[in-house]
From TrEMBL:
GO terms for biological process: lipid catabolic process. It comes from Quillaja saponaria. Residues 1-31 form the signal peptide. GO terms for molecular function: hydrolase activity, acting on ester bonds. Gene3D superfamilies: SGNH hydrolase. The keyword Hydrolase applies. PANTHER family: GDSL ESTERASE_LIPASE, OSJNBB0059K02.9 PROTEIN. This is GDSL esterase/lipase family.
């Protein structure tokens, strides 16, 4: 998802991994047998997607995620996460008993940086190219394959590891921003899900045997849309769009498991968990004083969280208690919002299939 100024999209790094965007330069990591042997057979997390999963890959020169007040809850300063603190990747890593895999922002890294896996996700990107200049999911997987080809991960590493694919709607937002017609949405949904199917198959073909993919959240409930209703209700038309995407995606996950005679593919239902919290249907809802209104908001429509004017004057407001709001900015949950979603997923055993 977005950081508004950077990513005025749905939920929708400089990076060695995406050097493919600039040309043939590659990440400078020395491959050594000692590295592969030392860390083989250890579980790792490989992350692909957008800002719901990005833990710092967007360039500092581009994104509001590197500006105050992002990161004020964790780690206490801006660190590239699109929240006041932790994001979905952090909670999935916690569930797996791992540290969050490194978001590789440099051309040179030491092999031990890859011990927990790699985060390839880049805020604002999508399955296809979006209005944000960054690596789409295919390019992210290209970078993953490049590391495998350079023997930085063994077959045993891959077989024991987990891939997380997070897609939060930037393809649909880009289409809307380009004045795509309502009649074109069915074809777009079909194209997006078909490409996601190819991506899931490709990662499985590279040797990863557990691949989790998130549904779209109820995009009509994002503050960028609830603002039109004074933060009182969701845009149900946009939620319907997300629902159609999710129906097709869930069908694909079931089909791929049948094709592979396995339980390799896991569908993570963010839509239902967001909805239950936002509709006040779960105990987690009671901790939030604000559900649809974000904690950090621009002083006017032309400004977003983290914006400053030419004189360095901040053009946003921040609430006193981020932990009491579900959304941080116009698109992204707060750390406490993600924590609530995570606990909902744990409570309903929705994540157990990742481990089996």
């Amino acid at each position: 998802m977005d950081s508004q100024k950077l990513l005025p999209l749905f939920p929708i790094l400089s990076l060695f991994l995406f050097a493919l965007l600039a040309g043939p330069r590659e990440l400078q990591v020395s491959a050594s047998p000692l590295f592969s042997n030392k860390f083989s057979a250890t579980k790792k997390l490989f992350v692909f997607g957008d800002s719901y999963a990005d833990t710092g890959n967007v360039k500092k020169s581009i994104g509001n995620s590197w500006k105050h007040p992002y990161g004020i809850t964790f780690p206490g300063k801006p660190a590239g996460r699109f929240s006041d603190g932790r994001v979905f990747t952090d909670y999935i890593a916690k569930f797996l008993g791992l540290k969050s895999p490194m978001a590789l922002r440099w051309e040179r890294v030491a092999p031990h940086h890859l011990k927990e896996g790699v985060n390839f996700a880049y805020g604002g990107t999508g399955v296809f190219d979006t209005s944000i200049p960054g690596p789409n999911m295919t390019t992210q997987i290209d970078s993953f394959q490049n590391l495998i080809n350079r023997l930085l991960f063994s077959a045993t590493d891959l077989h024991s590891s987990i891939a997380l694919l997070s897609v939060a709607g930037n393809d649909y937002a880009t289409y809307a921003d380009r004045n795509g017609s309502t009649q074109g949405y069915p074809a777009l949904i079909n194209a997006v899900v078909n490409q996601m199917t190819a991506n899931l198959r490709r990662i499985h073909g590279l040797g990863v045997r557990k691949i989790a993919v998130t549904s779209l959240e109820p995009i009509g409930c994002l503050p960028m849309h609830t603002a039109l209703f004074s933060y009182k209700q969701c845009d149900h038309i946009k939620n319907h769009l997300a629902g159609q995407h999710n129906i097709m995606l869930r069908t694909v996950v079931d089909r791929l498991n049948k094709e592979t005679n396995s339980k390799s593919f896991v569908y993570i239902d963010l839509y239902t968990n967001f909805q239950q919290i936002l509709n006040g249907l779960k105990a987690e809802s009671s901790k939030f004083q604000a559900l649809y209104k974000p904690c950090c908001i621009g002083v006017s429509r032309e400004y977003s969280c983290g914006s400053i004017d030419e004189n360095g004057v901040k053009k946003y407001f921040v609430c006193d208690h981020p932990e009491a709001t579900f959304f941080w900015d116009s698109v992204h949950p707060t750390q406490e919002g993600w924590n609530a979603v995570y606990h909902q997923l744990r409570e309903t055993n929705s994540l157990t299939d990742i481990l089996t």
